[in-house]
Amino acid sequence: MIEATGLRKVYGEKTAVDGVSFTVQPGKVTGFLGPNGAGKSTTMRMIMGLDRPTAGHVTVNGLPYAKHKAPLHQVGALLDAKAVHTSRSAYNHLRAMAATHGIPKKRIDEVIDMTGLSAVAKKKAGGFSLGMGQRLGIANALLGDPQTLILDEPVNGLDPEGVQWVRNLARYLAREGKTVFISSHLMSEMAQTADHLIVIGRGRIIADTTVDALIESQTRKRTLVRTPDTSRLGVLLAGEGVRVDQNEPETLEVSGIDPRRIAELALEHRVLIYELTPLTSSLEEAYFQLTRDEVEYHSHLESGTGAPGNRGGPAAPGAPGNPALSAPAATMEGTRR
Q: What is the maximal distance between C-alpha atoms in the chain?
């Protein structure tokens, strides 16, 4: 378990982390999300005792990291895959780490096999690709069979097979009752891997919840409607609180009205509908909605004529000749990831 209380870290005039409190429970995969510069890496460094908090405190399995007599058996971490002696082989790097805790050679062989490093175990780590470096970092984190695993962007540089392997590993460790804390910018991967999410923005916690609850809280319910008569149906659906967007021919995206009511109006006025599908928002959409005011840098991109708009943004003035249909906003606000 990881317990942070009132964590604060100030570098000169920059407050990197500002009064952060959270608990990472065992038996779950907890995702740690936030824009670049939000304070994720600083928080992880404070958990590992690499940075001293300006205020507050954090414990891992009941103690500050530095107080553990055999920390590799308590906490395994991947914070920087490049933190290896580049002239050493992968095997010798792990052997040196194992020697500090009396970890037997058998365990070194196990983590090398587990992480797919067998074919390159005797090669110098300095010649590893980004993906192989990540695998070595994960092997190092697993070396002491720790109760808590902290991984910062563990799938960075991995191929699809490697990404799936990290996902399955995280789930397996959580099922074994271990605490798994993962930072990532890949929302699609977090949606498949995490049970719980902690989101940080500008150094403060802005969400501490489940994946489903975050999506539910940040996205509007929408319905995809396909009809050859979009103009007429748009007029029929117009009303207070109802939004109708047309992004493709014969296709409407409708919010603010129940799908059953859409079907009733279409039947009553004999408008043909050949698809009526409730839309489920993604974690990525919910994340961008939640953190839109928390990013350090914004970019503004002009979309060309007929280019898809930002469905999550405010509607522009009504489409020519049909005030019931609102065109999507032409300016998209990007997030530095």
A: 78
Separation between Cα atoms, residue 77 and residue 63, nearest integer Å: 16
Confidence of residue 316 (pLDDT cuts 50, 70, 90): very low
Retrieve residue 189's tokens.
């991967």
| Short-list 189, 246, 204, CA closest to 34 | 204
Q: What is the mean pLDDT of residues 78-82?
A: 83
Beta bridge partners of 185: none
Distance of CA 48 to the CA centre of its chain: 21
The answer to whether residues 73 and 86 touch, using CB atoms and an 8 Å cutoff, is no
Residue partners of 37: CB distance under 8 A and separation at least 6:
296
Stated pTM of the model: 0.76
Cα–Cα distance measured from residue 45 to residue 59, given in angstroms and rounded to the nearest whole number:
12
Residue type, 232: R
The DSSP letter of residue 26 is: T
Strands 148-152 and 75-78: parallel
Q: Give pLDDT tens digits for 83-96.
A: 788 889 999 999 99
Structure tokens given for 17: 């982390």
Instruction: Tell me what pLDDT residue 297 has.
Output: 53
Closest CA to 225 of 261, 256, 259, 257: 259
**Rounded-to-10 torsion of CA 16, 44, 25, 176:** 160
Q: How far apart are CA 216 and CA 224, in angstroms?
A: 18
Q: Which residue has the tokens 């395994």?
A: 76
Sequence-ordered strand ranges (E) for 141-280 = 148-152, 179-183, 196-201, 204-210, 222-226, 243-248, 251-255, 275-279
Mean of per-residue pLDDT scores for the chain: 85
Tell me what the mean pLDDT of segment 36-58 comes to: 94
